[in-house]
Amino acid sequence: MNRLRDLREDADLTQTQVAQFLGMSQTGYSKYETGENDIPTRVLIQLAKFYHTSIDYILCVSDRRTPI
Questions:
Q1: Which H/E stretch holds residue 27?
Q2: Which of 7, 11, 31, 44 has the highest Cβ tally under 10 A?
Q3: Which residue, among 63, 5, 65, has the nearest Cα to 34 in the 3D structure?
Q4: Rounded Cα distance, 60 and 17, in Å
């Protein structure tokens, strides 16, 4: 899930900061970024709102960064 890492780095955030926003551990969040764990729907929604992007962009379904 390089998109998650790219979004996080573009926002100058650490994994720990994003994990805190989501109410989870850094290790758990890291597993989303590496693709080791699937991202639950509720977390995808939170991340899309947090980064002001679409879920499709996060999941690499679309290259359009802004939501329609």
A1: helix 26-34
A2: 7
A3: 5
A4: 23
